[in-house]
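Re: the 431-residue chain
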Amino acid sequence: MTVRTPDLAAEPGRIKLEWLVKLHWIAILGESAAIAAVQGAGLMNLPLAPLGALVGLAIVVNLALQAWLRRDPVVSDGFLAGVMLLDTAILTGLLHLSGGHFNPFSTLYIVNVALAAVLLPPRWSWTQAVASIVSFGALFPMQQWAPFGVQDHEAMMAVHLYGMLVAVAVAAFVIVLIVQRVSRALARRDEELARERRLAEQRAKLSSLVTLAAGAAHELATPLAAIAIASKELDREFVQGGASEGALDDLRLIRTQVVRCKEILQHMSARAGENAGEHIVEVELGRWVDGALDGLPDRERVRVDLAGGTTFVRGPARGLERALRVVLMNALQASPPGSEVALRARHAGNAVAVEVEDRGAGMAPDVLARAGEPFFTTKAPGQGSGLGLFIARSLAEQLGGSLELQSRHGLGTTARITLPAVPSGREEATG
């Protein structure tokens, strides 16, 4: 079974550029509204043609960036810095054509600097800071070539003061909004990376277990077979020779434990959800549950409640059945003899959840924290190896889901397997 993992290493740049594109649209709308308001109030004679050309250039650049992002590119820090420097150049042109250094929206230079400090490494952040300072400083000597004319200086001063308030408010809003959103997006990416690292560690553990089991099986197969044959012959001779019942019981115990050793080795050799030639397919929820119940001891004690309708999950069919069967067997063994175990399945949103609730004594917090670790078990010697739950959880996580345990000492345990739901029932196999 092969589960494809996303290329998370290429995502940080795309996340940052996506938010820059969103910020560009906000800036374009704000610039257009400001130009229209000033021109409509008759406070300045603005050169509408060059201003419109600069706004149009910003729109074209943003549309090009959106189209490029759909190709799922790797976005470098240098490319991001180039985009932000172009933003600074366009802002400088707009300010020069609409008031120069007198324009209160020159505070937007601070927005670019703040974003660069969050999104870019130090060398590019300082480059953006220097470019913003130089651009703002250039507005002063460029004032003598200003292409606009002021109609009413007193009214213009009042507008300037109110404009400063609006500009500061816009800058503060944009900085807080973008920094928080980008930080959350990067935090989600870090969580995904941590999950991928955890899955890689689990796959490494499984690989080690398979290697260990294969070597152990190879080394122990011959002596275990010899012990089994010899104990069978001794059993026959003891019965014929009239040996004591205690000796016969000891001999049968040896044979039982030899069989148990073989089963443990076979179980360790089975990789999580993988059988020779087994493919990833779409499995109907009812078929998954029926397959897990097939051949399960004390099946009549399991009360099934399927509320998921015709729902499908994606994974190796036999591996999914084995994982659910392990959970059911644990629940049956934990519950008092004769008591029922509840199996509930439901389809909620984009996920399928299968819950198994037992009637046992529950688990103490320290036991619950370790449940699912390889070779950790609370069962009596010979009853379990501690691998079943570990393998079941590893399979669920490799398929993009989870296996969670909820338990309170004295109130039983609920195991929940959650997997992504597949919208169609069309079976597809992958190599």
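Confidence is low (pLDDT under 50) at residues 1-10, 271-277, 426-431.
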